[in-house]
Structure formats: C-alpha cells, structure tokens
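FAQ: What does the model actually see?

It sees only this:
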Amino acid sequence: MMFLLLLAQSAAQTPAATPPSIAEGRAARYDECVDLATGDPPRGASAASQWRTNDGGFLARQCLGIAYANQQQWIPAAEEFTAAAQEAEVARDPHAAQYWAQAGNAWIATGQPAKARAALDAALAAGTLTGLDRGEAQFDRARAFVGIGDLDSARADIDKAIELAPADPLIWLASAALARRMEDLPRARRDVAEAFRLSSDDPSVYLEIGNISAVAGDEAGARSAWNDAIRIAPSSPAAESARTAMQQFTTDPPKP
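And it is asked to produce this:
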C-alpha cells in the first residue's frame, strides 16, 4: 500500500528543462510546447501532436508524453516517452536516458512494473544520468522491482537512490516501507525518522510510522500516528489508509 501512495505522489514528475543540444529555433518551439503541456495539457497535447507530424521528432513525442502525463493518461504517456527514447537513441542524442526514465515512471503508473523495469534498465545503462536524476531513476526502478516481487533488488536500488538523492523524503519513506516488508524494523524506524525530519507535514509519513508501530505490536503508537495522518489531511489517500488500518485493532464485544 505504501508504495502505491508513493506512486500517487511522484508518478507525474516529468523533467521539462530544455536539452542544451537543441538548436535555437527548435528550442523555442520545444519550450513553448512544454509550457502548454504543463499549463494547459489538452492544448499541449494538440500542439505536440501537430508538431510530431511536422518533423517534430523525439522532442515532440516527449512533449506529448508530458501532456498526457499531466492528464494522468499514463498508457499513452508511457508509449510516447518510449518512442521518444527510441528515436533519441537512433539520433544518438544524450537525452535518451531521460526519456527512458520518464517512460519507466509512466509505466509504473499504469501498473505494469515489468515494462517499467525494462525502460529504467535502459535509462540507467546509458550512463548519462547523474546525481539527482540518476537517484530518481534508481528509486523508480526500486518501485518496479517491488511491483514484480523482487525485494532484494529493490533494496539495492533504494540504497543507491539514497546515496544520490538524500534530500528526497519519498525515498526515505519508501526505504522504511520496504524495510518493514522485509521484517527489518530497526532499519524501518531509522528511515522513517529521516523521512519525518525532511517532511514532517506529510500524512504518508505518519501512516508509515503507524504501520511500523503496528508490526512491532505497539497499538497505542500505531493509533496515535494514524490519527495524526487523518488530522493533517483528512481527505488524503494516506488518511483513508490509516482509517482502514485502525480496523485491525477493532475487536468484537464479548458474547453474553
């Protein structure tokens, strides 16, 4: 459940910086397209589609993917990012890895972790992602590994993501949730504490604190944390999960 909540918070991350290798004229059109794809996604999709049919190449496809992602149309977004990555590879453009990473992120959102893993394998194998970008790709591949049930590989990727993007609270939160699933409660407590330090107003952090407390048999601590999640954001998915989680401590009254 926690990884699904993390997905909802991070799946629409679509970097839109102008690649420096674009010629000046195409850069202006790319910037205009991405602005539309971000600010008015339906118009952005229309503009990107027209550009794609008029020699827009992989830039138009990536822009179209952004427009679809911002409308949560994840399958067409993933398909466009994938096509952009493939065309960029043919053109030997160094930004192919970024497009593969975006494709992987979108495939996760469609609930197809195997396709996500393949795209993220390509993104990471290219060797052009560095720093935060590589850390986020490692994090996304970890989520894909969780989706296919390979927790050991997910742990390896999350550990690398923490090294590269230590200021991202979602990575620490995912690491805590994974540690809990792998029955490593000391690691889970340490990592959720770091997530709390970085993002103390996130209801998902309180949800996970409650989950860890519940696994440890601390009913009072679990209830307190889950109530905090509900208090902070009553209508959030984390709050709904907290309400559901509290039902495990509900017992039927003794029969007379």
